Amino acid sequence: GSTSAHLKVENLSAGYGAFLVLRDLTLDIRPGLTVVLGPNGAGKTTLLKALNGLIPRGGNVLLNGEELPEKTHEIVQAGMALVPEGRQLFPQLTVAENLELGGWLVPKAERPQRMEQAFTNFPKLRERASQLAGTMSGGEQQMVAVARAMMCAPRLLMLDEPSLGLAPKMVDELLGIARRIADAGTTVLMVEQNVKKALAVADRGYVLERGNLVASGPAKLLARSTVIREAYLGAD
Ligand code: ATP
Questions:
Q1: Is residue 211 within 8 Å of 16, Cβ to Cβ?
Q2: Each residue of 13-66: pLDDT tens digit?
Q3: Single pTM value for the model
Q4: Where does the ABC transporter domain lie (predicted)?
């Protein structure tokens, strides 16, 4: 993808059956790194599922001015990729095989080049290409999941809690990867529980509570805001 994505989410509603988690949610996801923060159950994962066609949605979602399709494979073809919560790798397949599966929509002739690009971007994975994904550490598996999503060269990459369960050093590494991807021109939308570290690498942030937007703005300002300091960082 050569053009960065600009995703406009207008009056989005989504939920499970009759239970609406999100109502009238409006977000403007511009090129760069945007983080969505909020406590458990705020609706962060629900937002990513709705944007990826995994659950039905209401409202308008525009990707670079064009209505986002409803079906997941069409959304992927439109240039959006998701790294789901819990990574969802194939543990019995090798790293290389997991990456190949990430390129299922890429024309066959282009796949070797994409794989080479993945190994250039994630040198640690080249050494591990033939290791079974299930035998890697949590941080390494998260890296495979990100590399797999990047195989289709998305314009917009979505990450659902990439730092979940990782040691502090790996958290920094994964958030650094998200930052690099954004700097290289892929718009990144990331859900995180790690508020302080996420705001330190992000350009902008949104804070959700019980499905509602309670704060938004440049990450630097959010990090200093009363809402964030009192609820998440422990005001001092
Ligand atoms: P977490 O960090 O815990 O994942 P979250 O902000 O991602 O939190 P969601 O997973 O989006 O929150 O959940 C929002 C609400 O939707 C919660 O009340 C949750 O119980 C509910 N919910 C999530 N998944 C389902 C489902 N499959 N069926 C019914 N309700 C669901």
A1: no
A2: 999 998 999 999 999 999 999 999 998 899 999 999 999 999 999 999 999 999
A3: 0.93
A4: 7-235
